[in-house]
Amino acid sequence: LNIPSILQDTVKKVKKNFAKLSDVAKNKLLKICEKKNCKEEPAEVKSRRNDILKAEYEFQKKFNPSLTLGEVESKFNAMHRAKKKFLEVAGLGSSVTPHDDGTFGHDNLLTETQSNSLISDLTELVNEVEETLEEVTGTATGTLGQVTSGLTGLLGKKKRNSLFFEENYAARWDPNVPIPYTFDANVALNEQGMVHNALQQISSVSCLRFQYVPQQPNTNHLYYTKFSTAGFCGLSYIGKVSPANPIYLSFTCPDFTGVVMHETFHALGVNHHHIRGDRDNFLTINWDNINPQQYDYFAVSDSKQFTSYGVIYDYGSIMHYNSFVAGVNPSVQTMIPKFDPASNTPLMGQRKGLRQGDIVLINKMYCKPPACSDANIYCGSWALSNYCTSNQWVGTNCPKSCGVC
């Protein structure tokens, strides 16, 4: 598409955030590693990995009796490699070993394909940036403008969509048929009630429908199971995975119906709110207090894979983490709102219910007709920059993000 040049400034601002860590932030994290061993694997991390590995192995065995523990462990190893790659790109790879706890971003599971795709994207990013810099600096006429132009071109090669992993990462569910769900026998009736309630709340504000199936179906479905390990509320894959989506829940955290909605949103394909490409416009990340081994909690998502769909940033999104997560000192904030911190800090991490932005996002993802689609991954960013009415190209090519269909 022939994108007007005036829109490129927004693209550049959004692109630069992916896998980017400033020298100031990097030095702050390295300073933390002077006081703590950033390569040591704490006992509770090892224990959590073993617990999750066992649970995932037992679940997958229901569908593939010949499955080996090594095959499941291969997926966990791939997630850990992806976390290592983020640290490497951030310039921390030689000093920090990420927690190998069997998760990504604290409450996500990734398929091996998803992990390898992230690694590939990060590797491609590094290689292409290096090649572009070599080409530009190797010529006498090389200018900063040429570098910027080169980076703009190489970072926009792949078209992926929305604030969720798109089809090459994870499939979405068919909104035209009810999504089946069932329970493991370990989920008590009152706990099942929390899940029923959570799904009803999602259905009440969207086109999505969920169908309880007492017996485990042969088709793709959501499978809610009780699981408990230290510091755990829930765990889910991002997007529809085969043969079924396990959603692991402790049923012990406050506002647990909201926890169920958070994890179910992951299964529907929604990623965390605080890693949006524009999050640095709204949050100050306190790198002085972040555990470097949990860097994957904060690494901004790839702007080629994610868009806000024009949904305004909301500190109270049910997909946002709280402001103290992953702190070396748990009583000191790791994420601080740039606007009205007194009011917005308490909203962060809330699980009391869906916010209007959550509702708008899930409806844009699932409930628009096929003809209502954005022509470019950056439509969400342009919409938030008020180009929908001021730029004819955006108004015409970004109907979903601009809310005109």
Automatic annotation (TrEMBL):
Record's keyword terms, sorted: Disulfide bond, Hydrolase, Metal-binding, Metalloprotease, Protease, Zinc, Zymogen
Active site per the UniProt annotation? 263
What GO molecular function annotations does the UniProt record carry, in alphabetical order?
A: metalloendopeptidase activity; zinc ion binding
Offer one Pfam family short name for this entry: Astacin
Domain named ShKT: residues: 372-405
Under PROSITE patterns, the record lists: ASTACIN, SHKT
Residue sites binding Zn(2+) per the record = 262, 266, 272
Name the cofactor(s): Zn(2+)
Q: Does the keyword Hydrolase apply?
A: yes
EC main class here is: hydrolase
Question: Which CDD domains does the entry link to?
Answer: ZnMc_astacin_like
Domain of life according to the entry: Eukaryota
Q: Which InterPro entries match?
A: Astacin-like_dom (IPR034035), MetalloPept_cat_dom_sf (IPR024079), Peptidase_M12A (IPR001506), Peptidase_Metallo (IPR006026), ShKT_dom (IPR003582)
What does the UniProt record say this protein does?
Answer: Metalloprotease.
Protein name in the entry: Metalloendopeptidase
Organism expressing this protein natively: Acrobeloides nanus
